[in-house]
Design a protein that fits this description.
Residues 24-283 form the AB hydrolase-1 domain. GO terms for molecular function: catalytic activity. It comes from Actinoplanes derwentensis. InterPro entries: AB_hydrolase_1, AB_hydrolase_fold, AB_hydrolase_sf, Epox_hydrolase-like. There is one protein chain. This protein has 312 residues and is of the alpha/beta class. The protein has one domain (2-298): Rossmann fold, CATH 3.40.50.1820. It is built from 13 helices and 9 strands. It has helices spanning 38-45, 75-89, 102-113, 115-121, 144-162, 174-185, 192-204, 207-212, 214-219, 223-227, 247-256, 272-275, 277-298, and strands at residues 2-3, 9-10, 12-15, 23-27, 53-57, 95-100, 122-128, 234-239, 260-265. Strands 3-5-4-6-7-8-9 form a 7-stranded mixed beta sheet, sandwiched between helices. A two-stranded antiparallel sheet has the order 1-2. α1 links the parallel β4 (23-27) and β5. α1 crosses α13, α3 crosses α4 and α6 (174-185) packs across α7. It starts with a strand and ends in a 14-residue tail after the last helix.
Length: 312
């Protein structure tokens, strides 16, 4: 656990060698928790003596971390939280940041609000099923007019939920919500373990978090921030059937990051780390290995002039 400056306690897991050449920080999505990354944590630990240090944490208002009030249920606050986590658990050495959905937006907010720190510490990125343009491309797989109506209803409902406090009565109706969640969050295939983990995390999320973060998620615009990051190893993944952050979101992110390698996973939905774990793990391992090689060659902090090597 770490206690943040405002008293919120975050549930944090740390694994891997203390003297690892690289530290990986994993940030999960809206209404999920750090278990989203379970397959990637296992894959990173499986590379033996070259394994990185791995930090995974439950965002405030999620998982086993403290509940949060509406005033701090923002992406800006999550960016500040990420900065505190990195300072505490990874005070030195190159860092690779991996973010899924809202976690990817958290990475962007950290870069925006802590630019000097980000530039000096972060050496690689993995952005999965996320966006730098709020809900600009979100259509829920529906015709535009119907999607607009649904978004309006969602936004109004989120405002009510944000004021509903740290309780979760929806947990009892999760089985009834399963078909809708299956359609919204997954693609052609959905393993039982992936579905259960997703539902359990959502059932644990309090109403105040479900509603509270919706506003800043919908309005965030960080393409300019990404374009200013310079060259670094980066991977951008999206499912071909993602109804929340469709391929157009990944395409704009990849254009903003000069060295980003974009992958569209055919037939996959929004929950890629659980739905297509091998693809996500492979992309993360590639970024980690590139960062480790560059750090070894340079034998100094990685700079903008040495970061990008697509063929490395």
């Amino acid at each position: 656990m770490i206690t943040l400056a405002d008293g919120i306690r975050l549930n944090v897991s740390v694994s891997g060698p203390q003297d690892a050449a690289v530290t990986v920080v994993l940030s999960h999505g809206w209404c999920q928790d750090r278990r989203t990354w379970r397959h990637q944590i296992e894959a990173l630990s499986g590379i033996g003596r070259k394994a990185p240090r791995v930090i995974a944490y439950d965002t405030r208002g999620h998982g086993r971390s403290s509940a949060t009030d509406p005033s701090s249920a923002t992406l800006a606050q999550l960016g500040d939280d990420m900065a505190e986590v990195i300072r505490h658990y990874a005070p030195t050495g190159p860092v690779v940041l991996a973010g899924h959905s809202m976690g990817g937006m958290t990475v962007m907010e950290y870069a925006h609000r802590h630019r000097a720190e980000f530039t000096s510490r972060v050496a690689g990125l993995l952005l999965v099923s996320t966006t730098a343009e709020g809900h600009a491309h979100t259509r829920y797989g529906l015709p535009p007019q119907l999607a607009t109506v649904l978004r309006l209803g969602e936004t109004l409902g989120a405002g009510l939920l944000a004021r509903s406090g740290a309780w979760h009565p929806h947990r009892v109706i999760m089985p009834a919500l399963r078909p809708a969640l299956r359609w919204l969050l997954f693609g052609d295939e959905c393993g039982e373990e992936a579905m259960l983990l997703t539902m359990r995390a959502l059932g644990r999320a309090p109403l105040s978090s479900i509603g509270g973060f919706r506003g800043s998620i919908g309005t965030q615009r960080r393409l300019d921030t990404l374009a200013e990051l310079g060259d670094m190893p980066a991977a951008v993944l999206v499912g071909g059937r993602d109804r929340l952050t469709p391929p157009a979101c990944a395409e704009s992110i990849a254009r903003a990051l000069p060295c980003a390698e974009m992958t569209v996973v055919p037939g996959a939905g929004h929950m890629l780390p659980l739905e297509q774990p091998e693809a996500v793990s492979a992309a993360l391992l590639t970024v980690v290995r590139r960062v480790a090689r560059q750090a070894k060659r340079a034998r100094r902090p990685i700079t903008d002039t040495t970061r990008c090597q697509r063929a490395a």
